[in-house]
Specification:
The protein is of the alpha/beta class. Helices cover 47% and strands 12% of the residues. The protein has a 6-stranded parallel sheet. The chain is globular and about 55 Å long. Bound molecules: magnesium ion.
């Protein structure tokens, strides 16, 4: 293994922090106030765009000709520090990882910087791959995975991906990556054939990698 790709939201911090609800409100407000969509249609459109494209942003680009950069600035303008606190245990754990760590997210780099700072994880990630890497096409679309592997100059089977969304790990497995599910889905009863390991949180990734390397030896 040569790299660990960490998702950001609800992966590096638990979903219970409920940071996404702040972004959620901003997405609705953007659609109503900036794009001038009838408020009664917003929820239905968001569901449709999620289903068809994996993210609201792609639907807004395709059907409303919005400026994606304006969208990213607007929806991520939330008080991250009101929901997240420094996670020293996670920092110590990530510092000991034997291979480089990266962030691979459907959010924006600016949001990553704020979250990483709020969690006290500055300097631990070699690079950030955000929603821009494949022209705003989000995971689980294969295009951003392909771009990430090209940027890293690695094959899929040299990477581990850590995520809270099972469907994003399905694509990772199609690229040959090792897949690690964290968060609520990891503690649920549903089995996912493309998930190699389930962990309580990202702080356990180090011991998992050590176990895997011992087995490989
Ligand atoms: Mg996530």
């Amino acid at each position: 293994m040569k790299a660990v790709l960490f998702d950001l939201d609800n992966t590096l911090y638990p979903a219970e922090c409920d940071l996404f609800s702040l972004i959620d409100v901003r997405i609705n407000r953007f659609m109503e106030e900036i794009v001038a969509i009838d408020p009664a249609e917003v929820d239905g459109l968001r569901r449709r765009y999620w289903k068809d494209y994996g993210a609201t942003l792609q639907g807004l680009i395709r059907h409303h000709a919005i400026n994606p950069e304006a969208y990213l600035d607007y929806v991520h303008a939330v008080d991250v520090g009101s929901r997240l606190v420094v996670d020293d245990a996670l920092r110590r754990s990530l510092q000991k990882l034997p291979i480089p760590s990266y962030v691979f997210t459907n959010g924006s780099r600016c949001h990553v910087d704020r979250v990483v700072t709020a969690l006290g994880l500055e300097g631990l990630f070699v690079d950030v791959f955000d929603i821009r890497i494949a022209d705003y096409r989000p995971k689980p679309n294969p295009d951003p995975y392909r771009q990430v592997l090209a940027r890293l100059a690695l094959a899929g089977d040299q990477c581990v991906m850590v995520e809270d969304q099972p469907q994003n790990l399905k694509t990772a497995k199609q690229f040959g990556m090792k897949t690690v599910l964290v968060g609520a889905a990891a503690t649920g009863d549903v089995q996912y054939p493309y998930v190699d390991a389930r962990l309580a949180g990202p702080a356990q990734v180090g011991s998992l990698l050590r176990n895997w390397s011992e087995v490989a030896c």
